Amino acid sequence: MQNTCNTPERHEGVMKAALAAMPSEEGIAVMAARFKAISEPSRLKILLALSAGELCVEHICAAVGGQQSAVSHQLKTLKDNRIIKSRRDGKNILYSVDDEHIMTMIRVAKEHLHGDD
């Protein structure tokens, strides 16, 4: 590859810092899977509903306007990616956020909707 950079000495340090900060390939795959999980609109709506607190499937469906079977499928994806968790309370299964870092990203994205363009 031909070197076409006209400031190699300046970029060399930045490139080394980028390499040092780069997660492993496995870490990148986990990050990508989590971004993919939250990028689907119905899953994002579920997370926004759960940001208010713990809910059962019936009330998640009411909050997001979805059918129980579809919501249950999306909950499984979020749970498989360790973004939400569940617990049994009698006959009900209650869902809540398990990854506050993801919720921070969602809050920032939501704030950005109303920011200056």
Could you walk me through the main structural features you see in this protein, from its secondary elements to its overall organization?
With 117 residues, this protein is mainly α. It is 63% helix and 12% strand. The chain has a three-stranded antiparallel β-sheet with strand order 1-3-2. Helix 3 crosses helix 4 (57-64).
Radius of gyration equals 20 Å
Question: How many DSSP helices?
Answer: 6
Secondary structure tally: strands: 3
Q: Structural class given helices, strands, pairing? A: mainly alpha
Largest sheet: 3 strands, antiparallel
Could you tell me how far the N terminus lies from the C terminus, measured between alpha carbons in angstroms? 39 Å
Describe the SSE topology:
Blueprint: H1 8-21, H2 25-39, H3 41-50, E1 55-56, H4 57-64, H5 68-80, E2 84-89, E3 92-97, H6 100-113
Antiparallel strand pairs: 1-3, 2-3
Helix pairs in contact: 3-4
Annotation keywords:
single chain; 117 residues; mainly alpha; three-stranded antiparallel β-sheet; 3 strands; 63% helix; elongated
Q: What would you say about this model in short?
A:
The chain has 117 residues and is mainly alpha-helical. 63% of the residues lie in helices and 12% in strands.
